[in-house]
Amino acid sequence: MYLNKVGFPSSRKLAGVFYGYDTVVLKVFFAAAITAMLGLLFFSLFGWIDLSLVYINPTYLTSAIVGGIIMGAGFIIGGYCPGTSFCGASIGKLDALVFIGGLFIGVLIFDLGYNIWDGMYMAKFLGSPKISQTLGLSDGVFAFLLIIIALTMFWVAEWAEKKFPREEY
Predict the structure, then answer these.
(1) Dihedral sign, CA of 30, 32, 80, 69?
(2) Which of 4, 40, 47, 157 has the smallest set of CB atoms within 10 Å of its CB?
(3) Number of Cα atoms under 13 Å in the Cβ half of residue 91
(4) What's the CA gap between 16 and 6, in Å, rounded?
(5) Integer Cα distance of 120 and 117 in angstroms
(6) 104-128 residue pLDDT tens
(7) Residue environment code for 67-97, b if the CB has 16+ CB neighbours within 10 A, otherwise e
(8) What pLDDT sits at residue 169?
(9) What is the phi/psi pair of residue 29, to 5°?
C-alpha cells in the first residue's frame, strides 16, 4: 500500500524522476537501500549475520551495460521498470500489464536466443566485488560516505523539484 501512496504504480510519477519535477520514487528507493545496508551492518556488528555468507551476484561488465541500456530504453518507452510495473498491475493499470507482457517476451527472446549472445553475456567477468572493497574502504566507512551522498542527493532532489515544477493534472 505504501508503494501505491508514493506513486510507484504511476508511469507519470516515475518519468518525473528523469525530468526532475518529482523525485519521491528516487528518494524511496535510496532510503530503502540505505536502510537495508545499515540493517545488514548492524546485524553483522551484533553477530546475527555473517556478511561473508551473503551472496553477491557475479559481475559481467558487458552484459551489465547492454542490459542497462535495454532496461533504460524500456523504462523510457514504457514508463515502468520491472518492479514498478507489478505495482501498477496490482491496482489494475492496463499499461503496466502490457509492460509485464513485454517483460515476458523479452525473457523468452533471451532464452531462445541465448546461444547467439552467450559470448557477450559472459564477457568481462569481474567476480563478485563489493563497492567498498573495490574502493579500498571498510564497510562502515563506505556506509557513512553513502549516507552523506544520500543526504546530498535528497537535497539536490528537493532543489530540482523547485527548479523544474510541473502542474499536476
Answers:
(1) positive
(2) 47
(3) 14
(4) 12
(5) 5
(6) 998 999 899 888 888 888 889 988 8
(7) eeeeeeebbeebbbbeebbbbbbeeebeebe
(8) 47
(9) -60, -50
pLDDT score recorded for residue 151? 92
- Could you tell me the residue ranges of all domains in the chain? 11-53+137-169, 57-129
pLDDT reported for residue 17: 76
Q: Look up residue 166 and give its three cell numbers.
A: 510541473
Residues making up the chain, counted from first to last = 169
**CB 168 within 8 Å of CB 34:** no
How many angstroms separate the CA atoms of 14 and 76, rounded?
A: 10
How many Å apart are CA 142 and CA 133, to the nearest integer?
9
pLDDT mean for each 10 residues of the chain (169 residues): 72 76 82 92 94 88 91 83 86 91 91 88 86 90 93 89 72
CA angle (144, 145, 149) in 5-degree steps = 120
Residue of 146, 157, 145 lying closest to 28 (CA atoms): 157
Q: Can you read off the three cell numbers belonging to residue 136?
A: 579500498
Q: Which three cell numbers mark 149? A: 551522498
- So what's the pLDDT on residue 45? 92
